[in-house]
Amino acid sequence: MENRYHSVRLDVSRCRGCTNCLKRCPTEAIRIRDGRANIIDEKCIDCGECIRICSYHAKVAVVDAMETIKRFKYAVALPAPTLYGQFRGLKQPELVLEALKQIGFDDVFEVARGADVVTKAIREKMKTGDIPMPLISSACPAVVRLIQVRFPSLLPNVVDIRQPMEVAASMARREFCLKRGCAPEEVGCFFITPCPAKMTAIRRPIAQEKSELDGAVSVMEIYGLLLPHIKKMQADPDFHLATRYGISWAVSDGESNAVCPEDSLSVDGIPNVIRVLEEVENGKLKDLRYLEGNACVGGCVGGPLTFENNYVAKNTIQTMAHSMPRRHPDEDVPSSCLNKYPVRNDRRIEPNNAMQLDSNIIVAMQKIQRIHELMERLPGYDCGSCGSPTCETFAEDIVNGRCREMDCIHLMKQEIQRMAQEMVTLAQMKRE
Prior knowledge:
The protein is α/β, with parallel strands linked by helices and 432 residues long. 41% of the residues lie in helices and 10% in strands. It contains 17 helices and eleven strands. The strands form four sheets. It has a four-stranded parallel β-sheet with strand order 6-5-8-9, sandwiched between helices. Strands 7-11-10 form a three-stranded parallel β-sheet. Strands 1-4 form a two-stranded antiparallel ribbon. α3 packs across α8 (219-230) and α15 (361-377) crosses α16.
């Protein structure tokens, strides 16, 4: 069985058993049982939607604390470009990069530089012409896991290029070792993450044997540590900055504008991504060349582990990008870079069989028949009172032994009415 890891966790002590998360989970991975939420491990994609919606803060993301970097002799920070958007009015990314050194990191390497390399790699791939239409971005691990669970037929469309943070980590480690003359195992590479899905992707990579990263610290924690230093920093002219295109990967449209500005589509927000993937699966978007999907509204700037309002952060990054030189990764990234560092995936992305009722086809067919019979009896309200998100998932939970028919309050009401009627009939028979 696959060893699963999830950054998104449930704090049982805070859960009140409301149905907010139940209704918003895109893979129907949450149930309410015994008055508390329960996350079905194999269905969770760590998108963080439940973290965002929970009024009681009962859903949390487990990431690494800053103290973790001390496990290594040297620590390199890999900030997601989203980090720049947390500081209103920021015009020079170098200020943030220099401040990261002040809080304990030995060096800094922009993930946006990894995005530049990935941009070039995908554009080179698209020139071959031997690609599925549309080619789907692999940058958002929550979207890729969504496809694994709900749209496995689209897995061949997912681009087989590594995420920018993975490419950046390979580059950062090698450059640091050459500069300091140290061994690779002495260097810890830590991603500054805006979302729990990236943390999960590090602990349980989707298409790699092992992640190039050693951990992830949340943007939220880093923001608080950086804030006192930002205003005092002087920009370091020696920093090799990413292009405006690489930095723009933090916002929706940024990736597609860099990779394929024509015949592309950018979608943000997990419900919207689902609707578009349904269109792709049904063959309604055949003329589309590239699809960028972001689980969070606004792109990575809308991640649940960020501090700033996502629209404000998006504006900050776009304003910064517009003031930068118009260098495109096609010209900025040397072709040798694509062979120098691991850019392609190690393995195929396999489907997640979480939606499969049973590995035995005969048993699965029997369960489907039982579900159809139950659906005839269920009211179809999808009210969630039973603890399952819909009547159909409730029927599936019954056949899988997760609950009982009488957990449906409407069926229970009907049963009580039937029993009451039987008692009335019995009483009348006795009087006669």
